[in-house]
Amino acid sequence: MSRLFDKVDDIINTSSTFGSMASGPFSYVAWLRPVSAGENNLGYAIARIGGTNNIAFEFSSSTAFGLSIVRSGGVMIHDTVEYTLNKWDHWCVTWDGTLAAANILIYKNGFEVGYATTQDSSGTHSSSGGTFQIGNRSSDTARTWDGHINHVHIYNRVLTPAEAKVLMLYPGSIKHGLQCYMSLNGGALRELDYSGFGRHGIVTGALQKHEDPLVTPFLFPQRYIIPKRNFFKRNSRFISATAALTGTVTSANEADIVAGGKTIILTLTQDTWVASGATFNAERQAIINGLDSAQSELLGWDNVVKALQGVAGVVRTSDTVVTITLDAQITYSITANETITATIPASALTGNVAVVATPTFTITEGTGVAGWGGLLSYRRNRLVYA
Prior knowledge:
The chain is mainly beta. It has helices at 161-169, 231-234, 254-259, 278-281, 284-289, 301-308; strands at 2-6, 11-13, 26-34, 44-49, 55-59, 65-71, 74-80, 89-95, 104-108, 111-112, 117-119, 131-134, 146-155, 178-182, 190-191, 201-204, 207-209, 242-246, 263-269, 291-293, 314-316, 321-325, 338-344, 355-356, 361-363, 371-372, 376-379, 382-385. Helix content is 10%, strand content 34%. It has a 9-stranded antiparallel beta sheet with strand order 11-7-6-5-4-12-2-16-15, with no helix packed on it. Strand 8 and strand 9 (104-108) form a beta hairpin. The radius of gyration is 26 Å and the shape is elongated. The N and C termini lie far apart (77 Å).
């Protein structure tokens, strides 16, 4: 079941201010299936309306969807054009309460979107006394959503990408910071809040429809859990991550590996690397170990490069990109071309499911010359003292 909003005047009003959430941080989460950009091309999915200023997760124009926060010095907007009409998608928007619009983060189906508008504003924000509403704004009901809404969550903290993925498949499953959770499959006039705070919604219009995303809701407070670490593996049909392999190593020969300095760039789609710092650093050796040769050369990749490569060369350059800069390996020597496959270990990924990067790369066998410290020169299959 879900609620269908009519683009005219439907609304669900919680009649609750949710205390200090007016100034952030917060996260809004919901499954949405828009038919159009809504009434006046400004349809509201979730909003806090009233007091001095407003907050709305909305269509900010006929072509963009995002979060708008009205401040005394203007409207702060961060939005995206990466939405699809007539299709269920899971959305999570977070704000840390700061002035920079870039700190409003939007996740679609568990992964951060690309942004269309990043508009900062100045001044103060206060929606003290305002109430949270779903599918419209109560002041004039002129921002009616057009389409379905399901499983609305409101948190008083910034959710992580991993948590957004969990809520996508198991709505209501994370209790920490939860201020309101409505499944939107309740009675004709009332939507129950399963957060435990009793912030139930009063329904005007918004018909019940037998259409909803394929999810498993946790509807009772005593059942709030975070799924075990193999959760994503068991539900991989919902999330299919990929990794692209690029970098200068894709055109490397034997001498290049001896000299060092070639790069392997691993770029994720539909997943992210584990958090930077100690968490990621602990996975660097496992990432190196995932670089496997299809050949069994005595002085080849597995026995030399993988065995001797330092972890300092493995750098997390963003949430989705890791760059490996190869150390010099003066003992590397092959008798035929060597093909390398990069398998990213599950423990290095937020989704906890191993990914094989594509394409593979080939190191070309052949004579080359490379110096090391002015003492050695390299020729295929042998080392000669200079």
